[in-house]
Amino acid sequence: MQILITGATGFIGQHLVAALSTEHQLTVISRRRDKAERLFAEQVQVRRLDELNNLDAFDVIINLAGEPIADRYWTTRHKERIAQSRWLLTEALQQKLAVSQPRPRLWLNASAIGFYGQSDANGVNEYSPVAQPDFAHQVCQRWEQLATMAAEHQCRVCLLRLGIVLGKEGGVLQRLLPLYRLGLGSQLGSGKQFISWIAIDDVIAAIQFLLTRHECHGAYNLTTPYPVSQLDFSRQLARSVQRPHWLWTPAWLLRLLLGERAALLINGPAVYPQRLQEAGFTFAFPELSQALHHVLGGAPVTGRTESGPSSANSRD
Ligand SMILES: NC(=O)c1ccc[n+]([C@@H]2O[C@H](COP(=O)([O-])OP(=O)(O)OC[C@H]3O[C@@H](n4cnc5c(N)ncnc54)[C@H](OP(=O)(O)O)[C@@H]3O)[C@@H](O)[C@H]2O)c1
């Protein structure tokens, strides 16, 4: 298939290109052509968005690009950048889709479990209502709405509501590992908030699964069936790098240091991949201990995770 990918130079995108380039012809849209060409060499064609008049040449669009959400303080200006980086690119792609003939058959769009807002629910899945919409919800909701416009052109749309993606080369582990290796792993706030995570290998496998399942459309949570509490996550990560775990960072301090962004760390419902499992997807790394062992190498982390699949894992 001819596949167009945005955000391919990022953490998930690089894994995806490596996995798809053996079977498909890939074109990458990047703001940094030199970097993309250096990264991918002969594997892909690199284009700037303004070089494409339409999307005639592509069977599939995979839209991942967006300003990182957790890297900087959320000033009004930066929040605007986080939102607009996703919305404007998606709108521009939709305009090109509307004038395409033939049109792509499939649109896979990144989103995030931030879609569910600040839910206190024990567990949420794709059928759950959004209790308290916040900034992350607003970004994801509009992003998903724009992506779903492709369905008006008989294009199948799947929305990838990503949890915290675990891989060594990027995402949250790249930031946490140096701290944990110094023994600075910490319980955050009550530690009872959930970390709904997924191994990078399962993200790529889920995308490949959705690529070929013509009956699949709509929102899919890309999260493990076994989310864990933040305290459990933190303890297991510390154990996996053979360091002690004794620090506690109170929620008020996180709010003081990080402002509104602290919500990403001190709130979080358990999010379950109900629709992926209903569709028949199986996870290679469902348990945190397995995933950390796979991602980090070394001795397996023993000890079962605190939380198994929840009763909320059924249709609400
Ligand atoms: N990793 C996670 O744990 C996670 C969790 C939930 C959701 N997600 C979402 O999944 C998507 C991919 O995640 P990732 O971890 O691979 O992201 P990433 O490593 O930050 O890469 C995102 C890519 O988006 C492009 N980009 C960055 N800032 C941009 C801007 N201001 N305007 C337009 N494009 C911009 C860049 O590509 P170019 O420089 O080549 O243009 C970059 O390589 C993101 O949208 C992210 O929000 C990720």
TrEMBL record:
Domain of life: Bacteria
Family that this chain belongs to: Belongs to the NAD(P)-dependent epimerase/dehydratase family. SDR39U1 subfamily.
Protein name per the record: TIGR01777 family oxidoreductase
Coiled coil feature spans: none
Organism: Pseudaeromonas sharmana
Pfam families cross-referenced by the UniProt entry: DUF1731, Epimerase
Domain called NAD-dependent epimerase/dehydratase: residue spans: 3-221
Matches recorded under NCBIfam families: yfcH (TIGR01777)
PANTHER family: EPIMERASE FAMILY PROTEIN SDR39U1 (PTHR11092:SF0), SUGAR NUCLEOTIDE EPIMERASE RELATED (PTHR11092)
Signal peptide start-end: none
Gene3D superfamilies per UniProt: NAD(P)-binding Rossmann-like Domain
Domain DUF1731: 249-295
